Predict the structure of 3'(2'),5'-bisphosphate nucleotidase 1.
Amino acid sequence: LLDHVTVLIGIAYKGKAIAGVINQPFFNYQSGTDAVLGRTLWGMLGLGSFGFKLQEVPEGRRIVMTTRSHSNKVVTDCVAAMEPHEVIRVGGAGNKIIQLVEGKASAYVFASPGCKKWDTCGPEAILHAVGGKLTDILGKPYRYEADVKHMNSSGVLATLRNHQYYSSRVPESVLKALASD
């Protein structure tokens, strides 16, 4: 699972993610000894995104991505409510955004506290640079001021397209469970 490992850098201005870097140091590690290891993806609002080829999930497919190792009933209930054609489980917040922008998943759904602002700021900026969206499960944007809590207590919902569809599918029980912030 070395390809799940990412190094994340995010820049926020006035509380909003504006630039980000995702380094995937072990990208291509299974391709043999002659393979070039690692890659860096980056993006900035108003400038664009670099280091990857933007792709989308085939039309009409809902591939929901969620946590590989931190699941619970609230998470599984939320994922099921999205009516996915397929569910994939991977590690790493940065890796999950890579899966979105490379067309391997339609939505990243994590209906649980756990990840932190440093997990989402850089990847969120890259996602926004290509027209995607990242919010908490309640549909509220995360803020990145110096004095905010580090924990993303209300989970994560990220999409390249159709954010409203996924946001509208979050069950009331999940909204209540994560409404603490």
The beta strands are 7-13, 16-24, 39-44, 48-50, 63-67, 86-90, 107-110, 133-135, 156-159. The CA atoms of residues 10 and 122 lie 4 Å apart. The helical segments are 73-81, 93-101, 117-129, 163-169, 172-177.
